[in-house]
Design goal:
The chain has helices at about 10-35, 40, 50-60, 65-80, 115, 125-140, 155-170, 175-235, and strands at about 100, 120. By secondary structure, it is mostly helical. It has a two-stranded antiparallel sheet. Helix 4 (about 65-80) packs antiparallel against helix 7 (about 155-170). The protein starts with 8 loop residues before the first helix and ends with a helix. The model has no long low-confidence stretch (mean pLDDT about 85).
């Protein structure tokens, strides 16, 4: 019996394509939340009409939120970075696998919207060739040990995980932003309550003064009528 053991390139390919899909979804989410451009939604042809409607409700919701645009920029820097894990490494970029913002080329000239938005594309033929020849090197650019302690501490996967964890972990960016907004809402509600109390007091005070003014006006009208009656009686005499 002859047993041949080879790397599972198909599973590796599926994993890389899944990674690209998840990355693009995250970038799309950031684009939609940080910009008020309807075309950002219409360009995502994989969305159903219901999903598009839900996206429209969130369009530009965090426009001007610099931490969101900064997070997107950092993610783009990670996937476009160079990862030279040893002196002999030849695969150090995702682009060498056929994964980049311009993997499909510019057949029609100019830039496509997907390139401008930061979405990754996959050249499957180039990816197949890279996996067949350099699968171990490809593994390393996603995660490798840079200081010899046998713990992965660099690579695309490691850096993206660290970057995204800083957003979603307890006490992370999203949690801090949420707590900050909740504090602002609580402070605003307290201010509204305080101003409402002041307004109620002012209203009560004005009503009291108005009642006093009406009383004074009624008294003056009564005195005027008395004087008028007195004057009329004197004229008859």
């Amino acid at each position: 019996a002859t047993i041949k053991i080879e790397p599972d390139t198909e599973s590796a390919k599926d994993a890389i394509i899944t990674f690209v899909g998840k990355y693009n979804q995250a970038i799309a989410e950031m684009n939609i939340l940080s910009q008020n451009k309807p075309e950002l939604i219409s360009e995502l042809d994989y969305l159903s009409s219901d999903e598009q409607d839900k996206m429209k409700e969130r369009l530009g919701m965090f426009q001007g939120e610099m931490s969101l645009t900064s997070g997107k920029s950092q993610m783009q820097q990670i996937v476009s970075g160079t990862y030279k894990y040893d002196a002999n490494s030849t695969i150090t970029l995702l682009a060498q696998l056929g994964v980049s913002t311009n993997a499909g080329g510019n057949a029609g000239g100019g830039y496509r919207p997907s390139q401008m938005r930061g979405y990754l594309e996959v050249d499957e033929k180039k990816l197949d060739a890279a996996l067949a020849e350099n699968i171990n090197q490809i593994k390393n650019i996603f995660g490798y040990d840079s200081d010899g302690d046998l713990i992965v501490d660099n690579g695309i996967g490691f850096k993206l995980d660290k970057q995204l964890s800083s957003w979603v972990q307890s006490g992370g960016i999203i949690s801090s932003k949420t707590n900050s907004l909740e504090s602002q809402i609580k402070s605003s509600n307290q201010k509204i309550t305080r101003l409402q109390t002041q307004l109620d007091r002012k209203e009560a005070e004005l009503k009291r003064k108005y009642a006093q003014m009406e009383g004074s006006l009624g008294s003056l009208e009564s005195q005027q009528n008395s004087l008028q009656n007195f004057a009329n009686q004197n004229q008859r005499k």
